Amino acid sequence: MIALPIECYRAIFNNLRYNYKELFSCILVNRQWCRIIIPILWSDSKKHFKNVKLIEMFLLTLNAKEQALLIPFKITLPNQRKPLFEYTSYITSVNNDLYHGVSNLIQDRKYETGDELRNAINCSLISMFLRTSKNLEYLSLNEVICNQLIYENLYENTTITSIDLDTLNNIFRSKAID
């Protein structure tokens, strides 16, 4: 039996990129297929950002600085094992659906609603995406009051080609921008 080169598998699976059911089935075939398909599935995860389970999985990826933003709000972080893959490294776009997902999480967990809590979670997640995403090209900051951590990670990120800023909702500090 002759094995196909990985590039051929990538081309085949890329043609199935919007057929999630088929791709999920293919993940179970073997490790090689799984390693090829996971980046394809997660490159367009923005469609699923409204899902509370996905937001909880993202919270598992926060580092100490990002978690520190949540301490004043007594947020209970999920106590599950870290995911098998670093899924956030494959994400190419973070849009406004993330902010709806955070709102869904707050509502689902019955946290006290408020703009400060929502912004703290959004800032933590945006900072984490900027730090971990190796392919992040688009970022929407429309519903986030940016903090120093976001600016630091934004400065370090070299893959972003488009940022959507709503200056009415963002507070820009000249020192952070510098």
From TrEMBL:
InterPro entries: F-box-like_dom_sf. It comes from the Eukaryota. This is F-box domain-containing protein. It comes from Gigaspora margarita.
